[in-house]
Specification:
mainly alpha; 86 residues
Length: 86
């Protein structure tokens, strides 16, 4: 949350008009974590499924939200999120 933002208004805004970049990044991150957990549990088929899904999501993210492989934004979170989430 940015300074001066209203948590309730931001929550409602997120429900009405979700941020596709944020949702896609978290979808990738979740699929990658599910792949890792499946590997720990010895569920190789699930591990491969979620790993392949995460790679498709990664490619979609790059195609949709990066320009020539670079972030083009004035917002720091748009730079940090891809770094943190790989």
């Amino acid at each position: 949350m940015e300074p001066g933002n209203n948590l309730m208004l931001d929550g409602v805004k997120g429900l009405i008009a979700p941020d596709e970049e944020v949702a896609t990044a978290w979808w990738f991150y979740t699929a990658r974590q599910l792949s890792h957990m499946a590997g720990i549990l010895g569920k190789r088929e699930d591990q491969e499924h979620y790993l392949a899904l995460s790679e498709k999501i990664r490619q979609a993210y790059h195609t949709e939200f990066l320009k020539d492989g670079k972030v083009n934004s004035r917002r720091m979170c748009r730079y940090v999120r891809p770094l943190y989430m790989e």
